[in-house]
Amino acid sequence: LSCSSCFSDTGTKPPESGIFGFMINISAFLGAATMYIRYLIIEKQNESSHFMNPSCNLITLCIGFLGCIGMGIVANFQELSVPSVHDGGALVAFGSGVVYITLQSVISFKSCPQWNSHCTCYIRMAISIVACIAVIPMIACASLISITKIDWIPGEKDYTYHFVSAICEWTVAFSFIFFFLTFIRDFQGVTLRILTEMHEDF
């Protein structure tokens, strides 16, 4: 019988658990680096346009970093070994992540149309809305699951809660991925600008 799998179930048993932890740690580091670069971009743009309070940009960055710390907790404290710590880290990671992309969507609208196209703003906001909608039943259903296990069979106790939570969890996770992909064009512009300034200095 097939069963649904939540994000953490993919790396609970060895040797998958080692690979899972390693990749999640790398993802958390790269996510933090991306957030910091995004912070610097907004800070530089805001210096010339003054479209937002600088403290909002810093708060958004801190929330993003908090989500990355949550990812690290998820990676290093396995679901079956220390479920309370693992679940706490997951709550921090997903909760902070949803808040981060929502705030980034708001910032995008504030900097539009000078620094972002309307299309990009709407795409980011749509992804944020999907993540916000999915994270609520994810947390609600996960809190109703009374047992911690990996192999689920349809029809057994709490299977429905697990199934809904797993779907929502993957939805939120992919929302983060697609949202970060919208930064590609912004980062390309920064790279070209840095290379141009370096060329002028020499």
From TrEMBL:
Phylogenetic classification of the source organism? Eukaryota, Metazoa, Chordata, Craniata, Vertebrata
Q: Which residues form the CWH43-like N-terminal domain?
A: 8-189
Q: What single Pfam family name could you report for this chain, choosing any that match? A: Frag1
Annotated transmembrane regions? 18-37, 58-77, 89-109, 121-147, 159-184
Designated name of the protein: DNA damage regulated autophagy modulator 1
Q: Where in the cell is the protein located?
A: Endomembrane system
Q: How does it sit in the membrane?
A: Multi-pass membrane protein
Write down any Gene Ontology CC term: endomembrane system
Where primarily located?
membrane
Record key words, sorted: Membrane, Transmembrane, Transmembrane helix
Annotated GO biological process: regulation of autophagy
Report the sequence similarity comment from the record: Belongs to the DRAM/TMEM150 family.
